[in-house]
User: Fold this.
Amino acid sequence: ETAKLEAEAYELEQRTALAAEAKAVLDSWVRYEAQVKQRQQKELAESIMGKIGKELENPKTLQQILNQSVADVESEFFFSFFCV
Assistant:
């Protein structure tokens, strides 16, 4: 009877060790995936900011921004002057 209980205890210890190892591997994989996703998001953000920076060097773009800003201010002025 003792030998049977010891065998069962050993088997349970092995299963527990295997489950702990599997959990460690899965946790490691989750951390790796999170790092990859973070790196990809950083690269995407840098790419977008670079494109925006390059676009802001374009005189046509700057003129469009200025024109839209003036139109927005004029619209706000008109609304607040005549609609209040």
User: Anything to note?
Assistant: The chain has two helices and no strands. The mean pLDDT is 94.
